[in-house]
Specification:
By secondary structure, the chain is an alpha/beta fold. The chain contains 13 helices and 7 strands.
């Protein structure tokens, strides 16, 4: 009995394993505790192992690769069609084992520890930003109950809140509560500034990240997030595949030879797509100061700003793919494609 392919249904403490031989016949069904995972696979002959790209998948993939196994990660939505019966651990492991052997299956690159460390900075920073926004909205909502209206935005709160806390027409207990909320808001600002400093330091140490910031609309935060998420850009066949992975291309609903294109698919990483679109909006804001023959100005002449922002984000994603796959290339603002020339 030689196991050639294994599917692992990952969990927090209990893992379900399904293995088949070279003829596709089931030869292994086993449930393992977390503590026995490495012990089991280190005794196993090297084989193909499939897992869903979920929590802790990249950690286990690195460990299994070190043992000599070939590990491939797949998006959960690509595994779901292979589930034959009701959802359970045994059926999921069998579906993963079946899906990983498909020749046209799409796989997720295994992230390194450095990539995951940088992405952790971004995720923690994103959580602090959300908490700060919620804090600002809570302060504005509480003040509105007392007839005090503050314009949206952190700047307005930081400017007006100190003087509001000095007002004698507000109850003392409420002013004390405002002080606590204001202190908490300043603490969140400090945490975000520290996260930004850590990201900026990693950005300065990475030559590739600095190269990406030469593209208008991409700053240190976007550049580091792209590098940590994409990894080896050669996993994508071309720039359009990268843009599609980010959800920046139209959805299709075509049939009978008739092509129907809808809005952008919004697939992939929401965080990366948001950064690229916000960066594109910043470029559009100052597009009027550019020459009249600028590509974005021509686009704005016939499309609204939101459509133009997505189009520019799509273009920037394709440029990123070129810069990552061709290390000698640098961004050239005056570059004209051969077809256009």
């Amino acid at each position: 009995m030689k196991i050639t392919t294994i599917g692992i249904d990952l969990a927090k403490t209990v893992f379900q394993i399904h293995g088949v031989d070279s003829h596709g016949k089931t030869v292994l069904r086993k449930k393992l505790d977390r503590s026995r995972m490495l012990e089991f696979f280190i005794k196993l002959e090297p084989c193909l192992i499939g897992m869903e790209a979920c929590g802790s998948a990249h950690y286990w993939a690195r460990k299994l690769v070190e043992m000599g196994h070939t590990v491939k990660l797949m998006a959960p939505q690509f595994v779901k069609p292979y589930v034959k019966t009701n959802k359970n651990d045994v059926a999921d492991a069998e579906a993963i084992c079946e899906a990983v052997s498909r020749p046209n299956m799409r796989f997720v690159p295994i992230k390194t520890e450095l990539q995951q460390a940088v992405l952790s900075l971004h995720r923690v920073r994103q959580g602090f930003v959300r908490a700060r926004t919620a804090q600002c909205n809570q302060i504005r909502g509480l003040l509105s109950e007392f007839g005090v209206i503050i314009a949206p935005g952190r700047t307005s709160i930081a400017k007006r809140l100190p003087e509001i806390m000095e007002r004698t027409d507000l109850p003392g207990s409420f002013r004390h509560l405002l002080q606590r909320l204001y202190d908490q808001l300043k603490g969140l600002d400090q945490q975000i500034d520290e996260m930004d400093a850590n990201i900026e330091q990693w950005h300065r140490e990475s030559e590739v990240s600095r190269k990406l910031t030469e593209i208008p609309g991409i700053g240190p935060i976007t550049a580091t997030a792209l590098l940590a998420s994409i990894g080896d850009a050669k996993n994508f066949k071309n720039g359009r595949q990268l843009a599609a992975w980010l959800g920046l291309v139209p959805r299709q609903h075509s049939s009978g030879g008739k092509s129907v294109l809808l809005g952008i698919s919004k697939r992939g990483d929401t965080y990366l797509r948001t950064l690229l679109i916000h960066g594109a909006r910043a470029v559009i804001r100052f597009a009027d100061s550019k020459p009249s023959n600028c590509w974005i100005n021509k686009l704005l002449a016939r499309k609204n700003k939101n459509v133009a922002a997505v189009a520019l984000a799509n273009k920037n994603a394709r440029i990123v793919w070129v810069l990552l796959t061709q290390q000698e290339q640098r961004f050239r603002p005056d570059y004209v494609p051969a077809v256009a020339a």
